Amino acid sequence: GLSGGRPPRDDKFARVTQEDVQYFREALGAGGRLVTDREGLQAFNRDWLGNFEGATSVAVCPTSTQQVSKVLSYCNERCLAVVPQGGNTGLVGGSVPVHDEVVLSTSAMDNIISFDEVSGILNCQSGCILQALDTYLAERGHTMPLDLGAKGSCQIGGNVSTNAGGVRLLRYGSLHGSVLGLEVVLANGEVLDLWQSLRKDNTGYDLKQLFIGAEGTLGIVTGMSLLCPARPTSVQVSFLSCKSFPDVLHIFRLAKQHLGEVLSAVEFLDRESLVTALEHMPGIRNPLPDGTSPFYMLVETSGSSETHDKNKVEEFLAEVMSAGLLVDGALAQDTSQASNMWRVREGVTEALVRRGKVYKYDVSLPLAEMYALVEEMRERLPGDSIRVVGYGHVGDGNLHLNISDARGKERQEVREAIEPFVYEWTRERRGSISAEHGLGLMKAECIRYSKPEAAVRIMGAVKKMLDPKGILNPYKVLPRDVVHEGC
Ligand code: FAD
Ligand code: MLT
Ligand code: ZN
User: Fold this and answer.
1) Does ligand 1 come within 6 angstroms of the Cβ of 434?
2) Matching CATH number, 112-227, of 3.30.465.10, 3.40.1580.10, 3.30.70.1350, 3.40.50.1110
3) 392 C-alpha vs ligand 2 centroid, how far in Å?
4) What ipTM describes this predicted complex?
């Protein structure tokens, strides 16, 4: 899954010995889990896409911050490299070892600590599964401020560490706003307590922001405080088809105008995405009789008054129709229709993996030019086995460009037709080569397409300060030339 091949092992790192394993076993005590058998390790070594595979010989699953601290301070002392891992749903190869790094998994740290129904503030450990948190909050009239297709397996610590976006960012903003406090274990084992539950706190630099989106390179997030909104009681989902990408954008504009205060998601997918989802995901139905239009949209509102919200959506749809923008449209009549609409959109990711090899790109671009990238890519990659698909969070200016190859394995000629073209194209428009998935291993050497030299240099300095030996998630996020020696 890498254009330049896997980076060589940095031999400053020690190799795991039997004594190390024995130490981890004692540090975990009775509660934690240690995995050392080949079969059990497979799940920790291989990423969700099947693009990256490491060769760790040990996965450590602590239950408490103190255990994480013990394990890290030991690894730092021994100069053992460590990969933090949550639900392992990351899409850029950040969550799996590159070589023989120790995996530190948060999967056994899944306690909900407290929830305040007045303030909406949730405190929990980082291994809580996103969907489990949302179910817990639903019972208390609240909702998680983020939602994504991987909700059934991704963990909140992984979400924070990737600054995951997802389908409700349009409504609730990014985790940089929703996270009120964090507890982080630094590389040397020190516990950095930034675990506050305050809406407002302007006492100096806001250090917790550094760890949001750091992809495990600066510390291990162990606990957090999150601001959770009240759960909307009326959710309306509509699915539309239209003739062109400019029409998608026009519909987005009308959605903001007519649904502004209740709008909660504006997603799009092209016909190739829809077809892929319908072909490979049994049980998903096309919400519309129309399967031949080039573009589809999912527009969701979340409010507190069903009649009011339904009226508004109907007015919006009438407006879209009278503007001549709509080929076809459906408003979900019940939760099963609504969830089918969501499954079409969110099912594209898994459908692509089922179809064969996926080359996955996640870019932020100016809206007006966004879809031209998909069209140009199609011209560069003709052939029966290849399908170029575009979908994503159009309301946030985020395109997911995916090249699917039914032949199944990585091919150099395909990769070379995509890279560096896609990165150069994005840079020319001052876009971002990673809107929400992060850089991980896949794009560590590509950071300069989206960041100036001074920013990369400062990032290297921050890394050196917080992780002087460079043991945390090596080979990821930062390019090789700014990573200090260490050990
Ligand atoms: P992992 O994959 O385990 O780890 C991700 C990164 O964070 C790694 O670099 C890892 O080292 C680091 N990390 C994990 N836990 C910690 C911790 N406690 N402390 C420090 N570092 C840590 N992403 C989006 O942004 N938006 C989407 O809409 C979206 N949809 C997805 C849909 C599907 C079907 C899939 C498979 C993935 C999707 N993703 C999406 C990508 C992925 O789910 C997110 O990045 C998610 O936030 C990762 O969480 P995780 O627990 O699986 O983390
Ligand atoms: C999505 O929006 O579906 C996710 O980011 C996953 C993907 O890019 O496929
Ligand atoms: Zn996405």
Assistant:
1) no
2) 3.30.465.10
3) 7
4) 0.99
Q: Following CA atoms 350, 352, 353, 354 in sequence, which dihedral angle do they give, to the nearest 10 degrees?
A: 90
CA distance 158 to 103: 14
Token look-up 């896997």 returns 6
Which architecture characterizes domain 356-446 according to CATH?
A: 2-Layer Sandwich (3.30)
Rounded to whole angstroms, the Cα distance separating 54 from 41 reads 10
| Residues whose CB falls within 8 Å of the CB of residue 307, separated by 6 or more in sequence, listed in order | none
CA-nearest residue, atom 5 of ligand 2: 166
Q: Between vectors from CA 242 to CA 238 and to CA 244, what angle results, nearest 5°?
A: 140
Tell me phi and psi for residue 306, to 5 degrees.
-60, -50
Sheet of 295-303: strand order equals: 328-331, 234-242, 295-303, 263-270, 386-393, 398-405, 357-364
- CATH 3.30.465.10 domain range(s) in the chain: 112-227
Cis peptide before 468 (omega within 30 of 0): no
Domain with CATH 3.30.70.2740 in the chain: 356-446
Averaged in consecutive runs of 10 residues, what is the pLDDT profile of the chain (487 residues)?
85 98 95 96 97 97 98 98 98 98 98 98 98 98 98 99 98 98 98 96 97 98 98 98 98 97 98 98 96 97 96 97 97 97 98 98 98 98 96 97 97 97 98 98 98 98 98 98 90
User: Does the reported pTM lie above 0.90?
Assistant: yes
Residue in 391, 396, 399, 433 to alter for ligand 2 test, most ligand atoms within 8 A of Cβ? 391
Q: Give CA–CA dist 93/83, Å, rounded.
A: 11
**Tens-place pLDDT, residues 217-237:** 999 999 999 999 999 999 999
| 420: preceding bond cis by omega (within 30 degrees) | yes
Answer whether 53's CB lies under 8 Å from 1's CB.
Answer: no
Is CATH 3.40.50.1000 the classification given to domain 234-346? no
Q: What is d(CA 284, CA 341) in angstroms, rounded to the nearest whole number? A: 8
For residue 94, give the ligand 1 atom closest to its CA: 9
Amino acid (one-letter) located at 83: V
Amino acid code (one letter) for 122: L
Tokens 């050990």 belong to which residue? 487
Alpha helices in 260-411 (DSSP H): 271-280, 306-322, 335-355, 370-380
Please, where in the chain does CATH 3.30.70.2190 lie? Answer: 234-346
Q: How many CB atoms lie within 10 A of CB 406?
A: 12
Tokens of residue 328, six digits? 């076809």
